[in-house]
């Protein structure tokens, strides 16, 4: 997603430099876009006014923040588009705030497609002043951009989104497994139900994966599992266990154990389809 986001910033005339933990990746993209590829995050921080981050996990965010810090000066702005815990966002803001640097947690939703097309939904947490400063950058990345409140609010909104995604992908997988067992022509079904009341982004964009039995990574199983673990921890603070979250964490653990952790989350269809296998005592599918 980060590569697509960088390209959109470049199209908007906003990209000055790129950095990646894989130097070769950064150098290749920098050559493509005609921008700099600083050697270290601190070098990057010293050379730009605003920094956009998109990495995979909480410790990755904190590691990048610590690496940026030596090059940051007061007045800089750091925008984190990673999906992490709200507490990680607050720790990042506290770390950078000591240097007079503004921070926004801005997790995104919309998948690889949204990143490529610049149509991401962006959920922001932080001060209104920092949000207004960031608006031109965020508008280059997404179509729906909302400030939800103080630092951590963006991550809380994204956690809400991830719970919804869990329930939707489970329902789509289960429905598609049922449809296949009924002998329905799946391509026709997707076209028709995609225009019906039960449709969703995941049905339109990921049910075709299920029909083909191919699950190219759009949103990886292991990453959604990581996000749902964050949701579980946030809910646990209220003494609550969320059934959808718990069920999907169990299914994802099974997929990861079978070696499917880097497939798209539509691979949940693998488990749902097994419910209809004759060996489980059901009638054969047509």
Q: Assign the CATH class of the largest domain.
A: Alpha Beta
- Alpha plus pi helix count: 13
Question: What's the SSE pattern?
Answer: HHHEHEHEEHEHEHHHHHH
Backbone CA Rg? 21 Å
- Overall structural class, as computed from helix and strand content, comes to mainly alpha
Provide the number of structural domains: 2
State the share of residues found in helices, binned by percent: 55-70%
Strand order of the largest sheet: 1-2-3
Distance between the termini: 39 Å
CATH topology value of the largest domain: Rossmann fold
- Average pLDDT works out at 95
CATH homology superfamily name of the largest domain: NAD(P)-binding Rossmann-like Domain
How big a fraction of the residues is strand? 5-15%
Q: Which shape, going by the Cα principal axes? A: globular
